[in-house]
Amino acid sequence: MDPVSAIGLIASIGTLLKASKGTLDLIKSYKHAPKDLFELVHDLEIFEEALRGFDRVLRSRQTKHNISEKILRTAINDGSATVKDLEKRIKQVYKTENSSLRRVRFVQNKSHFETLAKQIKSQETFLAVCNQHPQLLEACSTVVEEMASEPRFPSDMSESRSPLISRYPSSNSSSIISMSLGSSQPSSRSSISSKNSSTTTSTSFGNTLSVPGRSDRRGSDVSPQSSTLVDSRSTSSLIIRRACRHDCYCKCHDEPTTGESKTPSSRFNARVFRENNKPKVECSDPGCAATISQEKPIPVSLFKKAISNMMSTSSIQVRYRLNTYRMVPEGSNAMRYVKHGNLEKLKLAIESGEATPWDTAPDGWSLLHTAAYARQLPTVQYLVKLGAETEVSDLGARKPVDFAFLKSRGADATQTEKDIVQVFSKQDDYIDDYEFTPIHIAVLDLYDPEDLERPTLEELIDFVDHANNAPQGTNWSHWKAKYQKRSPLFVTIIEQFRVSAAENPDTGKIIQNLVDQKDRKFHWTPLHWASATGQADKMKILVNTGADPFIKSNLNANILHAAVESNALESLSYALEIHKRYPDLLNIDQSNVWGESPLIMAAQGCLVGCVKLLLEAGADPNVRQENQQVALHYAGLSDRGEKKCETVALLCDASNTAKLDIDAQDEDGRPPIFDFVDDMECMKCLTQHGAKLDLLDNSGNSIIHHACMQGESDSLEALLQLPGDGKLILTRKNNDGNTALIEALRHESIDCAAILLELDDVGDIVGQDGWAAVHYAAKLGDQILLKAVLKHPTFTRGMKTRDGKTARVIAMEAGHWQGETKDLLNRYNALI
């Protein structure tokens, strides 16, 4: 085996070792798993032990090149697939906290666990044989190669067509192979046996060799007792290559021993033991006992090839991920770009280093969480391609795929939401994480494709009530047998009752309240999900059959929040009817764990219908969430469009003017109007209702600064035309010492800078670190901008940055010291 293949195999074995150990730790981490899977755990421990031993064999200097790569690669891949499948099923069964549901899933997967146990036993047997006899595979593969290179004669067709070696040895082999190699001790499964075995082949790797299926023809110097004759047509025993006289089993030694007869032998023996008339194969094994030549230096190109192959192979796993997980505020530029669906600005922010694909808000929401929740398919695809984490959970243990699933089941779901789900998961395995009850499944229409009965929500609720009415001591096994051929949902319900009765024998009568049971991800009851999916009819069924409409999730969300999640107007209307009857129990301004009321959530998505219903029902637009933002702030973070303006108009309506704080500043000092610099219609609406333009955030930035930083040239022009003390805002410096012009140049907003340069007074043209407008213009290399800066009244020749760089040096560093840029700087920036 060449070094490149050996490195790849060693890496694959290392990955498999890590996976098997992780699976063992996973089993032990669950309370009931070690007891339920006792035999499987034992087999897996033996498999891991054999794998570690084989890893040592493969790394050995004497044996690392003496094993067939193809057979090993197949075995390792099979082992990896088995361990991966086992880990997946263990998580599906045991990660639930509901004992009844866990037992149901164990019964459903029991046959799969037994199958996986058999596979692990078979693979461990293969590894054990290789650990004790590493030359076995090399010998067999060499025989196959030599036989393949021989021409086929008509008489050969009478020989057995069965393969000489199987994929790898298994416990179902039809023969017994026992091997003796000096003092080596067999492992627990190094002997392969079968009850159906009728033949035994004994092979000793010493000075003699037994060949199955042929008589001994080597001469009189070999005693007849040293061979065992076995019909090769009636056995699948392995054909073993004879060891060389140096006892190192090297490929280069295939010459006969001293006393071997030179008489012709049969074709079969000729293939295996004949003298090779070809030039002798040069030995490449540094440990060969017959070679005392000088070791050849390994070419550098071979080492580079090995390292390249090792780094590119899929079996190599990075030990440490060096991603930078930055904690960013909810209102950061990157978060706003994701919510707005502005992919180009997001790409620019990431490429410039202003943001990373792993930026995360304090509540655990990453850019990917936000993109999935905001239904931004191109942004999701871009972030996943960059390597953004898809398995990281937020404060509520929800992954990005969970938000994608939520939006895909909503009343306003489109194909886009379903495509986002497919980006994260090509299978439906993520649904198992929710641990939906049969009532959830009926509400969400998540029936198994094989369930032809598909019982309705009413039928399942009636069945639960029927089971709750069963007397104490009911034999639930009889119920299970009775409904065995019915929908599996009935069997699941019965199994929950049976397990509860078995685990709590002293409880007495078993009562199950499935209509109020929460799922594991969102901690929503079936009523929450019916509200979120816009199924007011199912909400009425649940409420009329005893469901509690006042239950809140673990994040303090009620059914009003759930209805707003998917713009479900019918569900929201029905929930508001309940609120009118019980205003104290179903609070219309209920804040979730982030302080968001249903109105704030409706404003974020610019859900005009929901905003209107909530305001008419008396929702307070001044409720502040954890970052001190109000509904107007959230409306500014949504996409552009007519719905955004309609939402702002509703929030600024005259009937609510008295109680609306239109200039409410959040914890960063940003009023709502700062989030509307990308929408002139909304800005006009806010200014008409009294929004102030001279407010500054905590960084000292005005609305003019924000328009320049975001490159909103149209908004900048409109702001400059508004009446007021615009000069004061225009010339003001922020906390970094930059005016609006300098911020425009720093953020490469050339159009905004050009608009400001048309004015005579733009404030101090020197910003932080001594960088003036001419320095930024030279770095950007835009000739029109540079000419405007050089001709502006505030321009001064020979200006230097704080570290002593002139515009000429900066242009050279940026690669723009040529053409018109060079001419302009020489003409206007020269000292004389």
From TrEMBL:
SUPFAM superfamilies: Ankyrin repeat. ANK repeats lie at residues 363-395, 522-554, 594-626. PROSITE patterns: ANK_REP_REGION, ANK_REPEAT. InterPro entries: Ankyrin_rpt, Ankyrin_rpt-contain_sf. Keywords: ANK repeat, Repeat. Coiled coil: none annotated. It comes from the Eukaryota. Residues 151-234 are annotated as: Disordered. Residues 162-210 have a biased composition (Low complexity). PANTHER family: ANKYRIN REPEAT AND PROTEIN KINASE DOMAIN-CONTAINING PROTEIN (PTHR24198), ANKYRIN REPEAT-CONTAINING PROTEIN-RELATED (PTHR24198:SF165). This is Ankyrin repeat protein.
